[in-house]
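stage 2 :: seqdesign
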């Protein structure tokens, strides 16, 4: 029996899945997707599938992958889905199908405790404060108990803790086989388990980091497999460009200086002026930051000439040359002690790598790349390709190489574009020749949800826009008893709307206002899901950025999603500008071929927070009248699920009242 037939049989009414899961119901779309995945595994090639919310795409790709009996690589955009696949979905399906499956979870180095750096940190007399000393003590205690070394398993460790960089390794500072702790290294243990596993679960960041490592001739981190599946594939391009270009950050430089000082004082005291070398490195990094001057946090400065915009070229070049000089001094100092310990060999390699990057940034950018500087507390110099198309075609698909033709590549997400060929995804990812399928959601959106575009709200460019959004959200959440999520397109709007709503409900027992940034994301979502009960009010969550996707709140805890304005890419962003200029050079329209598709996909992602299962009911409000008045508005509305459109405020209030009167699910 072919893999396609086996897959179809598993999803049949009396198949393996129905016998194993009480809530399983056959869905034509889910079965069709599984058969398409099975066919691609059998024949090789690339398959792109947009599978709407509720299709059950995870089972659609896992079932044929497991039934194939071959080794499989699964990559996700988030650690949350990575953990879900490894800890829940894979074991459940393997049991249902009666298959013995060896699985492995593989994360980046920064997720694992480094035993050697833990020992160095223990002897480090320059820890920043008492809180760090206490955190280090807790890590040491946990280190005696853990088998995996995965810091996500350590209770009470804040993911933003300053101690984490001190007890984890990076590709730059890892000593490899020369490390005295190599035998018990948690990264190597995870790597060995991955090499022996049938299914390896990674994330996109790790996949592209490994792609970059392989290109540099270093040992591969991930095992070679014939079948690779990318879930949450809509993030693939933006993740990939981070790793396929070049970056230099003042944070990297400061970490290098700190590591050099610590190793020098512990292993070679008196053999070089470690304080002076580290200080020179720190001063050079600080001078580079000062050369840029003051800018809003998160600003991106375009860089098309000798220096970034608004930065005097002479000051910028002098700062880079000063940094190069400080690194050369460090290289000379490390040369004198390189035979004493492998730590110094690795530090020498790091200093040389940083010096090469400084030298590259002193010259012009590579053709087809774009440069910019990210400004925050630290500075980050970036040179990036405009997309990952060339890398995918050459390094993944191996176009033109016969041995690559049998590899199977599956890419899937709930949102991959707003046209039949899913050009928003396939074009920048070099997948124009892939088979493309769209599987519609099984939800009855016309009955379950409605969308409302208020015509009287000020335009997004009007200073009164965000206060008006806050007023609408506050009144609606009060009527609904919380159960509301406000998604903003900018951090400025997040602050304005969040502060206005917190002021409105201060001291109130009606609604608890949650704002992104006040707690870690996981805690905010947990509180929001709890909703009202046990004397607590329902919740109104104001969020931006990562909350537009990957947030799953089924049931009546979320029944109203408000989007402040259409999520077009920021036109002043250097990467956006460069992509627009490339389209213009090709005789295409940047607005129609880039800005509108980007907004359509982001809008679909935000709207996707509303209806998560067949029994959900909800309202989507988009506070941007351009959706109703501009010609491109029809295209954006068509990209949304087929919800009922509410034309008037009266219809909106009536539907809101209906949600208020509905029994909790």
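stage 2 :: out
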């Amino acid at each position: 029996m072919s893999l396609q037939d086996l897959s179809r049989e598993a999803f049949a009414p009396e198949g393996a899945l129905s016998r194993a899961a009480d809530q399983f119901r056959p869905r034509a779309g889910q079965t069709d997707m599984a058969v398409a995945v099975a066919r691609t595994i059998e024949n090789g090639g690339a398959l792109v599938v947009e599978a709407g919310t509720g299709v059950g795409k995870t089972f659609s790709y896992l079932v044929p992958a497991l039934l194939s009996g071959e080794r499989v690589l699964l990559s996700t955009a988030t650690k949350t889905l990575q953990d879900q696949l490894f800890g829940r979905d894979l074991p459940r399906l393997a049991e249902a199908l009666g298959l013995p499956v060896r699985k492995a979870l593989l994360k980046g180095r920064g997720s694992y405790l480094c035993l050697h750096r833990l020992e160095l940190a223990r002897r480090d007399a320059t820890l920043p404060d008492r809180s760090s000393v206490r955190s280090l003590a807790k890590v040491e205690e946990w280190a005696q108990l853990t088998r995996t070394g995965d810091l996500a398993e350590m209770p009470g460790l804040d993911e933003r803790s300053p101690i984490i960089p001190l007890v984890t390794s990076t590709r730059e500072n890892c000593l490899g086989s020369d490390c005295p702790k190599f035998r018990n290294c948690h990264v190597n243990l995870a790597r060995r388990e991955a090499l022996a596993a049938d299914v390896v679960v990674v994330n996109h960041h790790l996949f592209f980091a490994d792609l970059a490592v392989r290109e540099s001739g270093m040992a591969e981190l991930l095992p070679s497999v014939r079948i690779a599946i990318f879930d949450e594939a809509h993030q693939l391009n933006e993740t990939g460009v981070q790793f396929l270009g070049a970056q230099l950050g003042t944070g990297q430089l400061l970490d290098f200086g700190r590591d050099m000082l610590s190793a020098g004082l512990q292993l070679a005291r008196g053999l070089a002026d470690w304080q002076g070398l580290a200080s020179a490195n720190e001063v050079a990094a600080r001078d580079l930051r000062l050369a840029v001057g003051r800018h809003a946090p998160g600003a991106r400065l375009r860089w098309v000439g000798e220096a970034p915009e608004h930065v005097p070229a002479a000051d910028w070049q002098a700062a880079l040359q000063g940094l190069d000089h400080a690194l050369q001094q460090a290289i000379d100092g490390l040369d004198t002690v390189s035979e004493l310990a492998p730590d110094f060999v690795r530090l020498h390699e790091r200093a040389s790598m940083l010096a090469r990057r400084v030298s590259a940034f002193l010259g012009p950018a590579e053709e087809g790349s774009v440069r910019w500087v990210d400004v925050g507390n630290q500075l980050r110099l970036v040179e990036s390709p405009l997309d990952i198309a060339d890398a995918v075609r050459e390094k993944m698909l191996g176009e033109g190489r016969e041995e690559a033709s049998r590899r199977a590549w599956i890419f899937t997400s709930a949102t991959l574009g707003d046209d039949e060929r899913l050009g928003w995804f396939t074009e920048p990812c070099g997948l124009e020749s892939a088979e493309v399928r769209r599987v519609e959601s099984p939800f009855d959106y016309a009955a379950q949800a409605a969308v409302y575009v208020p015509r009287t709200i000020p335009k997004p460019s009007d200073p009164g826009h965000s206060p008006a959004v806050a007023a609408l959200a506050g009144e609606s959440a009060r009527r609904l008893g919380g159960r509301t999520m406000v998604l903003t397109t900018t951090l400025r709007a997040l602050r304005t709307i969040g502060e206005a709503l917190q002021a409105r409900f201060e001291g109130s027992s009606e609604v608890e206002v949650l704002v992104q940034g006040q707690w870690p994301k996981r805690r905010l979502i947990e509180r929001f899901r709890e909703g009202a009960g046990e004397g607590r009010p329902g919740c109104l969550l104001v969020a931006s950025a990562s909350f537009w996707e990957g947030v799953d709140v089924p049931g009546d805890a979320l029944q109203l999603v408000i989007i402040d304005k259409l999520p077009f890419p920021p036109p002043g962003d250097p990467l956006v500008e460069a992509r627009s200029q490339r389209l213009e050079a090709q005789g295409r329209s940047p607005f129609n071929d880039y800005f509108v598709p980007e907004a359509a996909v982001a809008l679909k992602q935000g709207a996707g927070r509303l209806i998560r299962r067949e029994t959900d009911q909800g309202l989507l409000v988009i506070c941007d009248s351009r959706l109703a008045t501009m010609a491109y508005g029809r295209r954006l509305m068509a990209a949304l699920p087929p919800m009922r459109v509410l034309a008037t405020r009266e219809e909106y209030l009536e539907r809101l009242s209906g949600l208020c009167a509905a029994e909790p699910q």
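stage 3 :: structure notes
- The longest helix spans residues 313-335.
- The longest strand covers residues 45-51.
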